[in-house]
Write a structure and sequence with these properties.
Order of helices and strands: HEHEHEHEHHEHEHEHEHHHH
Number of strands: 8
Radius of gyration: 20 Å
Distance between the termini: 33 Å
Strand content: 5-15%
Structural class: alpha/beta
Number of helices: 13
């Protein structure tokens, strides 16, 4: 009797799983978390950059809002603004942040930045509509940052200043570190412990075809690459940091849903970008590129991405709320 009940339970689980899979295939992928790289321009020269300044285009604000509304209607819950360097265009960035929260009512809005151009006035004005501010810092040794191409020796000082502003204006503070040939032996435990970011994302330096893979591209990241073992060694050294989120190449390469400056989804398998979502819609654009949802989930793409005071009104960005 016990065996029969166990088999029935197993059959039920399999049936439900297949039903969910069939439902999701019929309705297509849901762009739950999107990275909008609205500019490729940057004021830094990081040698391993994989989203380089091959154009200087930036979308008209009204067209950009139209595209973001399409994404929200298609199921987007989190939007991350990236570049290039987003703070080269603070007016555009601030307008988009406010639109996403006030008009689209997105659960989470975030920015990834090198931090150099952030001013306190921006957070004073827009911080209420910003959930997460992620600042890139690859070393706490300024000589290493300079060698990488990340600034002129003030990166760490600025990072600490931004951390204080985030606390002051109620924005979750995050640090992004690219683990590479110049920093993989560094011990960052003391400084990360002092700064206490809510997330510390550590990426293994990534080579992307057409962006940083040859002498003909704007960057050639090969001299910065490290082995999987060297990346794992860095992560193991910092395993005691509660905010640590390691991201090896195997999880990073195709797990990000990237919208470029022309409102096209990028495909990291070597295929051409999609047509702009304003021309063909979100569903058709998504169908034309490869986005690895499994790797997205495995790397922790779903997490509590809403700042605490917002959770009561819009709910946590937890994975249990999604029908994956």
């Amino acid at each position: 009797m016990g065996t029969i009940m166990w088999l029935l339970a197993l059959f039920t689980i399999i049936f439900i799983s297949l039903h969910h899979l069939h439902t999701r295939r019929n309705r297509g992928q849901i762009p739950v978390s999107v990275n909008y790289h609205f500019t490729r321009r940057c004021n830094y020269t990081c040698g391993f950059c994989f989203h380089t300044a091959s154009t200087s285009y930036i979308e008209d604000p009204n067209r950009a809002k139209e595209g973001l509304r399409l994404l929200a209607n298609a199921g987007m819950r989190k939007l991350n603004f990236a570049g290039g360097e987003p703070f080269l265009y603070p007016k555009f960035l601030g307008e988009m942040i406010d639109f996403c929260k006030q008009d689209l009512k997105l659960e989470s809005v975030s920015i990834v930045t090198n931090g150099s151009l952030i001013r306190e006035d921006f957070l004073r004005k827009h911080g209420k509509n910003l959930d997460i501010l992620a600042v890139s810092c690859d070393s706490f040794d300024e000589a290493t940052n300079i060698q990488i191409g990340r600034g002129t020796g003030t990166q760490v000082k600025k990072l600490c200043e931004i951390a204080r502003w985030c606390e002051k204006y109620g924005v979750l503070f995050k640090i992004n570190t690219v683990v590479n040939r110049l920093n993989y032996m560094e011990d960052m435990n003391e400084r990360i412990g002092e700064l206490k970011p809510f997330r510390w994302k550590c990426f293994q330096v990534l080579i992307v075809a057409g962006e940083n893979d040859t002498e003909e591209t704007l960057r050639n990241g090969h001299k910065f690459t490290i082995s999987d073992g060297e990346f794992e060694g860095f992560c193991e050294r910092h395993r005691g940091q509660p905010s640590l989120v390691p991201e090896p190449n195997s999880l990073m390469a195709k797990s990000y849903l990237i919208l470029d400056e022309y409102l096209r989804f990028l495909d990291r398998t070597g295929k051409q970008p999609s047509r702009p979502i304003l021309e063909v819609g979100v569903k058709k654009a998504l169908e034309s590129v490869f986005w690895d949802e499994g790797a997205f989930l495995e790397r922790g793409g779903l997490y509590d991405w809403v700042k605490p005071e917002m959770e009561k009104s819009c709910g946590k960005g937890g994975r249990e709320e999604l029908d994956w």
